[in-house]
Amino acid sequence: MDTKKKYKRLDYYLNLPWTYTVESSTDENKNKIYIVRVNELPGICTDASSLDEAMTLIKEPMTAVFELYIDKGEDIPEPIEEKDY
User: In whole angstroms, what is the distance from residue 44 CA to residue 59 CA?
Assistant: First the structure.
């Protein structure tokens, strides 16, 4: 019996409809920064000087965590569909 988990491709997980929390703040030089967190993936966040850049950069830690889940053979959480609330 094959007990190895089957995973979808990385781009499948990256393109799911994740929900994000976006906050704005200022850095030590009084420049505005945007902090983006993935609600379904605790601890996954990034920051940047523009919202577009932050939304692009968040894909890096998401990719890393998906690869870690796969390497460890753990289930990868997926977003809850709005209809399931």
Answer: 10
Are the beta carbons of 48 and 35 closer than 8 angstroms? no
Reported pTM: 0.82
Residue 29 lies inside a defined structural domain of this protein: yes
Note whether residue 16 is domain-resident. Answer: yes
Helix/strand/coil for 29: coil
Cα–Cα distance, 39 to 62 (Å, whole number): 12
- 16-73 pLDDT tens trace: 999 999 999 998 999 999 999 999 999 999 999 999 999 999 999 999 999 999 999 9
**Enclosing H/E stretch for 48:** strand 45-48
